[in-house]
């Protein structure tokens, strides 16, 4: 059995994953806000609780984090839960748990889960996409997670939106310090902001879809713009890594029309006469990240 932990900005979840993919144990608690030491202790308590509940001792724990571990310093970097940045998360946990700890970005964990036994199982090259409060990505090739020499493989969200229109030049400011990143156009808050700019209404993406289906032209226009941007963003990925499957996760992955409309629109930007890449929703939804964390302990 494997233990996986999903360390999120608002919640921390632990699961025990059996070899057949079943989950005999799961527990979720709130993340201590802005408190690194309390976060470490919460993770330890969850892992020890899982071991007690199923009467076993693990030799490895996989953890999905909002950032990555720097290969130079061994410290957390690029994390929007800023209390983790610059901290020795892996070594602190290993010191307490007395077992191996393996970490990966949450988008990488999501992609690994869907590539191992999810919506992209059996595929050679898989690109996983998180469309939520942020925009992340991960790459799995032949069942192996690709992290890259800088531990940033798949971070398409911090590239500029490709083929921008004149109205998209420069683009919104991003927390990374640049402007016009894909994340500033394709996250959930970005979709809400774009629709607010068009209509003066601040509504959730799910309500936006309902409005469009009910005949609201402004809502339809906002979704068409979003689909066009997503198509361009994914086309640039396809031109580089040519994946068999792109799997969508995160809250915006529940917009069903994306799976029909986006592949139709990315054709104009992909350098190929035929595009066989499939765009599919995640099989395991919100559970993919923590499942992928468990699969890190291979």
Overview of this protein structure:
- This protein is of the alpha/beta class.
- It has two domains: 2-109 and 287-295, Nucleotidyltransferase, domain 5, CATH 3.30.420; 120-282, ATPase, nucleotide binding domain (Nucleotidyltransferase, domain 5).
- It has helices at residues 36-54, 89-97, 106-117, 183-186, 188-199, 205-213, 217-241, 258-266, 288-295; strands spanning 2-7, 11-17, 25-30, 60-65, 68-69, 76-77, 100-105, 125-131, 135-141, 144-146, 245-249, 278-281.
Précis, in short:
It is built from nine helices and twelve strands. It has helices spanning 36-54, 89-97, 106-117, 183-186, 188-199, 205-213, 217-241, 258-266, 288-295; strands at 2-7, 11-17, 25-30, 60-65, 68-69, 76-77, 100-105, 125-131, 135-141, 144-146, 245-249, 278-281.
